[in-house]
Amino acid sequence: MSPNFINVHVSADHPGVVECREFSDSPVVRITPTKVSKVNAYVSCDDLPKEMFGKGLDLDRQWYLFEHIREFCHTDEAKNFTCPKPATGKRQKQTVPPKYRRCIKMHI
Description:
Blueprint: E1 7-10, E2 18-21, E3 29-31, H1 59-69, H2 76-82
Antiparallel strand pairs: 1-2, 2-3
């Protein structure tokens, strides 16, 4: 059974060498990964997966970050990058009238 390495370190000082540890206080194991075969060593751009873009945050989440989290960012640059003001206005919360709310009464 091969060990499960938790700590993995790659350095420009030792190219091609990966230093691994099973635990933080374990001794360092140096591994030099090698190619198994030269078949498919070069990948054409046609074989690469298509780029995917995230949908982004919904409007309620954007406003939450702007109103509640922005104050914890130290610099204006961090505030504008992490919690910018949403481009669209805030949605009105829809409230359910009391007669349409479902209540569960527990009898003990």
